[in-house]
Amino acid sequence: MVPLALPPAAPVVEDPGPLLSTPAEKKAALAAATVSSGDLTLGKLTIAGPCWKTKRHAAIIHGFAGTKGNLGFPIDDAGLGIDLDGDGTPDDLLFMGATNITSTYEVYLRRGAYGYHLGRIETDTNLEVTKTKTNGLFDLEGERACRVLCCASSEKSRYSFNGKKYVKTKTWKVTNDCSKSPF
Predict the structure, then answer these.
(1) Distances (CA, A) of 9 to 33, 95, 108
(2) Does residue 39 contact residue 163 with C-beta atoms inside 8 Å?
(3) What is the pTM of this model?
(4) Which residues contact 66 (CB under 8 A, 6 or more apart)?
(5) What are residue 138's DSSP bridge partners?
(6) 52 closest CA partner among 30, 74, 77
(7) How do the domains of the chain map onto residue ranges?
(8) Is-contact 105 96, C-beta < 8 A?
(9) What confidence tens digit (pLDDT) does each residue in 12-37 have?
(10) Cα-based distances in Å from 1 to 24, 129, 181
């Protein structure tokens, strides 16, 4: 598995203007963030469109986008080059923020500079790409974050693509050897 690095420090963002507040503003912003409305076919699998400007789409659905067109929130690609379909093109695992130890990510399968939205993952694990695939896309899994340097027992979770979005498909207990931990 390839571990994912923590997102870099948040950059300064331009004033987004007033946040999108009406359904009409949000609808117009989503239309502007749409690159194409067509579906994507991967072998036997069809991923429903539209294809999005990924960071703009993520900002809109999380309420971070402003009327000036700026994002209003520094969105980082936490995946740093993850490849969900094995085509050699980095896909997006966008870090949208965290509450306590639970992080929120939006997942996009990239085609060029744009991508198809594959859902939201809210997790307290450090996600990694596995070597196994479900419905043509690699699974993601990780071990629960620990508040100390070594947790004697923890939990792992796997997220798989169900044909429409990534969902949690398995959770299991793990035991860690903390005997060499200085704490």
Answers:
(1) 26, 12, 22
(2) no
(3) 0.80
(4) 15, 16, 17, 18, 19, 20, 72
(5) 133
(6) 30
(7) 2-124
(8) yes
(9) 445 555 677 778 888 888 888 888 88
(10) 43, 6, 23
Angle at 126 between CA 174 and CA 179, to 5 degrees: 45
Encoding tokens for residue 142? 């990780």
Do you know the residue count of the chain?
A: 183
75 burial via Cβ count (<10 Å: 0-12, 13-18, 19+) = buried
- Chain-centroid distance of CA 71 in Å reads 17
pLDDT tens-digit profile of 56-113? 888 888 877 666 555 555 666 665 678 999 998 889 998 888 888 888 899 999 988 8
Over 70: is that where the pLDDT of 118 sits? yes
Rounded-to-integer distance, Cα 24 and Cα 166, Å: 29
Sheet containing 128-134: order of strands: 2-3, 128-134, 137-143, 153-161, 166-175
Q: Examine residue 50 and say whether the peptide bond preceding it is cis (omega within 30 degrees of 0).
A: yes
Closest by Cα among 88, 133, 90, 91 to 109: 91
Which has the closest alpha carbon to 127: 176, 89, 94?
94
At 140, list the tokens.
């993601």
pLDDT at 79: 58
Q: Is 149 exposed, middle or buried (0-12, 13-18, 19+ CB in 10 A)?
A: exposed
